[in-house]
Hints:
Layout: H1 8-33, H2 36-43, H3 49-62, H4 65-79, H5 83-98, H6 102-114
Amino acid sequence: MRLFLPSARATNYLLIVGSCSLGYALFMRYLAIEQTPVGLACEGGLNSWLCFTRHIAIVLFTYSVFGWAALIVATLNLLRPSLLLFAVALSISCLGVVLYNVGLSGLAVGLLLLSFARRVPEPE
Length: 124
């Protein structure tokens, strides 16, 4: 049996997934959530897609949804490594690290690193 190691093409896709989710999380944090004028406009009743996604992101990180979801998917990936689970866990972990769920998302990143030491399951 061989260890779980993405191919070069899969690694490129994982880099794209991680960069896009990290970029979106940085955009949401620094240009939508922490900007005072945007917050005042959204709380004042502005009805736009930015206010909607800002509200959704605030609700999700308030209840640590990013951290718990990243931890659950990373644990599933540790138990049975697959490229799809790794990509989903990587994306949610990037969102969680930037959007105030650092503890649980950091643990999920550690589990993702441990999944490289797991063997790939045999096809049945």
